[in-house]
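User:
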Amino acid sequence: MENTTTGPATTQVTTDQTVAPTAFDITAYNATLETVRRRMTIIEKSKEEFKQLKEMHDSALMNNTVYVEADKAVKDTTNKRKLVANQLIKQPGMA
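Assistant: Predicted structure:
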């Protein structure tokens, strides 16, 4: 049987001195900057449109008497729940 074990592998790192370091690409930078600006404009326009739609939605709800009455009932019930919770917390066993 032959000895097939080998010693540790050695490597040599070489560098290519003929390649210049990459320069700053102003064209790519400007293109990226323009893309970011365009997308920011789209986002701002979308925010304004969303704000208008939300106002229309809220206005439609507030003009509906059934919704207004239900909303008032929810607020009253929520206030009652808070009062009961505060009273329970003040009891000696809860503190």
